[in-house]
Amino acid sequence: MSFPLYIAKRYLFTKSSNNAINIITLIATLGVIVGAMALFIVLSVFSGLKEFSLDFIKVSDPDLKISAEKGKSFFFTDSMATVLQSEKIADYSKVVEERAFFKYKDKSHIASIKGVDANYLLVNNIDTAIFAGEWLVEDTYNTVVIGSGISSSLSLGAYDFIESLKVYVPKPGKGYMNSPKTAFNQLNSQPIGIFSLTEELNKKYVFSHLAFAQSLLGYKPNQISAIELKLLPNTSKDEVKQSLQGKFGGDFKIETREQLNAAFHKMLNSENLAFYLIFTLILVIALFNVIGAIIMMILDKKENLKTLFSLGTTIKEIKKIFIFQGLLLTFSGLIIGLLMAIVFVLLQKSFQFIMITPSLAYPVEFRMLNVVIVFFTIITLGYIAVKIASSRISNKIIQ
User: Do both 224 and 322 map to the same domain?
Assistant: First the structure.
């Protein structure tokens, strides 16, 4: 053990004759403990909220989505099916999607009609989000499943057969419309299910059979908007995407779930970074206590430092004593704070004693990355703080 580290340990763990120094040191340690706990818990809560939010996206969006680079549709061919069967793909579903105008009685809403085939539930678990009614039944051509936001907007429930839900889409073509009555394709539908995911998705989608959407848009039986894919477990999305892109060519666009929700991921990461910076600023303020504690310790040990200097200890070594003392104080507070925060997060994850609603616990997620972030953040800031404090030591103080 080096001489500065030995003296630093003695200074830190031995009570000072000046009771004010002991109180200041205790306050500085508590500041680090509370700061470490707060930063780790906040990062764990955001990790939990991120996973909680992404669970909804996993229900509604596929692992990979293939769509046309130009235009709104393309023709699904046998050669495409052969390519999809040769890759690490568990299942795929053909879909047709387009913006549409929905009218029920005297109310209207603009959303997306999404026609799906029989394999859709093998790719996306959207049926798990249905809270009223049921998912599409194969032999009922004109049935639809609507989002709870659309249901609320139109005052429409499941199995409401008194009046049909009318769906309108503009007819394809160029030039001016001669008559509004002939400008739209229109079909009647009957809602048999209502799903609830995020507020945006609840207002965005109406699911129908693939044939219903194709008929509404005037598509041919093999004309679709996209292919949604579910990959085999432990399969790299990027590898499959790269392989498919090479086989499908530049006429097709292949996107991962993360790319489909790039704005959402960017928002989550931005919020996480913002709160990390805010709590880091709070930590900086808390570490001023460490600076104060070290400076007070320097003044309290002034006579001892003169003795050490007379015995041949250099100014650099004396500075190291208080750098080590400050780092030990910071490290002790960090470890205690982290352990307490980890126990709190694990207890919340296991026993869910803090609730958002009576049926929904506050989501938290334990991640080693958060432990590493908190550790290096506090150690780095603590080192800067003790360097500032130890810079007060000079020949003028000691002599």
Answer: no
Three-class SS state of 223: strand
- Work out the pLDDT band at 172, boundaries 50, 70, 90: confident
Cα 63 to Cα 55: distance, rounded to the nearest angstrom: 13
Same domain, 92 and 240: yes
Structural domain count, the chain? 2
Closest CA to 298 of 1, 2, 7: 7
pLDDT bracket for residue 113 (50, 70, 90): very high
Nearest CA-CA partner of 65 in 144, 115, 123, 114: 123
Q: Which of 114, 128, 99, 121 is nearest to 206 (CA)?
A: 114
Grade residue 395 by pLDDT with cuts at 50, 70 and 90. Answer: low
Q: For residue 46, which phi and psi values (nearest 5 degrees)?
A: -65, -35
Handedness of CA 47, 51, 57, 63 (dihedral sign): positive
Considering the domain architecture, whether residues 164 and 189 belong to the same structural domain is answered as yes
Q: Which domain holds residue 276?
A: 3-57+264-398
The predicted structure's pLDDT at residue 325 = 85
Structure tokens, 277:
């910076």
> Does one domain contain both 306 and 367?
yes
- Is residue 159 within 8 A of residue 141, CB to CB? The reply is no
Q: Note the residue count of the chain.
A: 399
pLDDT of residue 177: 58
Q: What is the pTM of this model?
A: 0.78
Calpha distance 213→225 (Å, rounded): 10
Q: How far apart are CA 336 and CA 342, in angstroms?
A: 10
Is residue 182 pLDDT above 80, yes or no? no
Q: Which amino acid is at 95?
A: V
Of 225, 243, 260, the position where a domain reaches its end is 260
- End-of-domain residue from the set 205, 237, 260: 260
Residue 151 has φ and ψ, to the nearest 5°, of -60, -45
The answer to whether residues 176 and 273 belong to one domain is no
- Is 100 or 301 the better-scoring residue by pLDDT? 100
Give the number of other CB atoms < 10 A from CB of residue 1: 6
Same domain for 237 and 302: no
Q: Which two tokens stand for residue 37?
A: 């706990």
How many angstroms separate the CA atoms of 148 and 197, rounded? 8
Q: What is the pLDDT of residue 338?
A: 95
Quote the CA–CA distance of 384 and 280 in Å, as a whole number: 14
- Distance CA(344)–CA(183), nearest Å, equals 61
